[in-house]
Write a structure and sequence with these properties.
The chain is an alpha/beta fold. Helix content is 40%, strand content 16%. It has three domains: 161 residues, Thiamin diphosphate (ThDP)-binding fold, Pyr/PP domains (Rossmann fold); 158 residues, TPP-binding domain (Rossmann fold, 3-Layer(aba) Sandwich), CATH 3.40.50; 186 residues, Rossmann fold (3-Layer(aba) Sandwich), CATH 3.40.50.970. The chain contains 22 helices and 18 strands. Helix 10 links the parallel strand 7 and strand 8. It is globular and about 75 Å long. 53% of the residues are buried.
Length: 551
């Protein structure tokens, strides 16, 4: 067989179902090998979008998503997606083509050193220099992409190598159990939690893995210890749970930080340094127990006094099994914080003003989406409101990126969710982020996806305008024009809609989800109160709550 056939057989052995990408002249042999395989090739309109889809596939399934690009500009277009997957701990395999390496008559046309370019952005980047190395290189790439901490890997397949004969046997995927934590570390964690007066559980990005969710839910139910999450830890434990205090790091002066400051032991599960610090440690302050796949990276604001290093699910199961509820635990201050969070979130959830306020948009989408519905966010100021006010019921049902935080990822991420699960999928994009990959509307229509795209229109880069206002700078340089979004969607063969009153959004989303197919809904949004609420009102209310609760 050709080397390109062997590559595809190796992908099949890894369980790959789809490859997202944009082929080029140098990848035509690989494309032909894919045509004759069990793998579906999803032709996208831009390599960056293909990378976002592959990364999200990896995030949702736990198995590496795969994307394909050609050499030169095709490969460079994957750079943002590589960083997205690497920082976000999403397992992804990128395959790019290259000019012939054994003899070339085209000089340096389109040639950049892609392997060298990808080295700092991936866990592994290598050229497939012969057919004989393909099985081992592909197996190693998938192993590393999936191994904790997951991330991006890159394989380069030169055009002449792809056409060479290959005879090496495919290596089957191997199952590896993660190491478990030391018994004495587990015993020390149990003792520290039982001795605490106000233990508190933090669910971070690293806990957002398939095997961790059930164990964490059982831990909370068994111990009765309240918990809060980071943005990328949302949904690991059902946030309808009355012990859920909300999400940290949306603002260091929000209500949840009042609870954090009153905890004497914080059990930090799945801490990931890419997220903004969910709390800041102080010398002589809280005791922190680090429960993770790997040891802590110590910095001036995070220096845990106890580490339980090993498989998270196993560690939590063992800690939970050894803990008895303690009569001296005092959770009343935490539950008071919970009441304040819920009351504040409800205040504008039924606001009838138009354009719509973010809180109303968040509440309406939560009301109409089922528990397994996937809501994929692009990046903008609305992400703060979804992080804060949208209770996720299941893991990875609120897809947001608090690592690279790249604009343009919302639509491709929702498309990957639709491809993978068949569950209701909704993308929420600002008008700026949507236009960065809006061409993938055609891809969604061509593949018959069921997808609703909510475009929040404010005709500006709203997040940066807010920061500009906070800094006291003039409102300048951040406004732009937009197309007629419903007509734009219809030009791609999708259905276009526009909201004219606050009460129209929820029933319109429901109708679109029931109808199936691809829909775009333009929603005018009013961010004018962000500065007043986020920068003045919340800090004042939090300070008042802290004073009322005392120490």
């Amino acid at each position: 067989m050709k080397t390109s056939d062997l590559v595809v057989r190796a992908l099949e052995a890894e369980g790959v179902e789809r490859v997202f990408g944009v082929p080029g002249e140098e990848t035509l042999d690989l494309l032909e090998s894919l045509r004759r395989s069990s793998i579906e090739f999803v032709l996208t309109r831009h390599e960056q979008a293909a990378g976002f889809m592959a990364a999200t596939w990896g995030r949702l399934s736990g198995c590496p998503g795969v994307c394909l690009a050609t050499l030169g500009p095709g490969a460079t277009n994957l750079v943002t997606a590589a960083a997205y997957a690497q920082l976000g701990a999403m397992p992804m395999v990128m395959i790019t083509g290259q000019k012939p390496v054994k003899s070339s008559k085209q000089g340096y046309f389109q040639i950049v050193d892609v392997v060298d370019m990808m080295q700092p952005l991936t866990k592994y980047a290598v050229r497939l220099g012969s057919g004989e190395v393909v099985p081992a290189r592909v197996r190693e790439a998938f192993r590393l992409a999936q191994e904790e901490r997951p991330g991006a890997v890159h394989l380069e397949l030169p055009e002449d190598i792809a056409r060479d004969d290959a005879h090496a046997p495919v290596l089957e995927a191997a199952y590896t159990r993660r190491p478990t934590a030391d018994d004495k570390a587990v015993e020390a964690a149990i003792e520290a939690i039982e001795d605490a007066r106000r233990p508190l559980l933090l669910v971070g990005a690293g806990a957002n893995r398939k095997r961790t969710s059930r164990t964490l839910g059982g831990f909370v139910e068994h111990t009765g210890i309240p918990f809060f999450t980071t943005q990328m830890g949302k949904g690991v434990v059902d946030e309808r749970n009355p012990l859920c205090l909300g999400t940290a790091a949306t603002s260091s002066r929000d209500f949840v930080h009042v609870a954090i400051e009153r905890a004497d032991v914080i059990v930090n599960v799945g801490h990931d340094v890419v997220e903004k610090p969910p709390f800041v440690m102080e010398h002589g302050g809280q005791r922190v127990i680090h429960v993770n796949f790997s040891s802590a990276t110590v910095d001036p604001v995070y220096f845990p006094q106890l580490e339980v290093v090993g498989d998270i699910a196993n560690s939590l199961w063992r800690i939970g099994a050894g803990i008895a509820r303690q009569a001296h635990w005092e959770f009343a201050p935490f539950l008071e914080v919970k009441r304040a969070i819920d009351e504040h979130a409800a205040q504008r959830s039924s606001d009838a003003s138009f354009p719509l306020v973010p809180e109303r948009i968040v509440a309406d989408l939560r009301r109409v989406l089922p528990s397994n519905g996937v809501l994929a966010l692009d990046n903008g100021i609305y992400k703060i409101w979804f992080s804060r006010n949208y209770p996720a019921h299941l893991p990875n049902t609120l897809l947001l990126d608090n690592a690279l935080a790249s604009m343009g990822a919302g639509l491709p991420s929702a498309m990957a969710a639709s491809f993978l699960s068949g569950a209701p999928a909704v993308a929420v994009c600002g008008d700026g982020g949507f236009m960065m990959n809006s061409q993938e509307m055609e891809t969604a229509v061509r593949y018959g996806l069921d997808l609703v795209v909510v475009v929040l229109r404010d005709d500006a880069y709203g997040m940066i305008r807010w920061k500009q206002a906070v800094m006291g700078l003039p409102d300048w340089g951040l406004r732009y024009g937009n197309p007629d979004f419903p007509a734009y969607a219809e030009a791609y063969g999708a259905s276009g809609h526009r909201v004219h009153a606050a009460g129209e959004l929820a029933p319109l989303v429901e109708r679109c989800l029931a109808a199936g197919g691809v829909h775009l809904i333009e929603v005018p949004v009013d961010y004018s109160a962000n500065e007043r609420i986020l920068d003045r009102e919340l800090p004042e209310l939090s300070a008042s709550l802290a004073a009322r609760l005392g120490t």
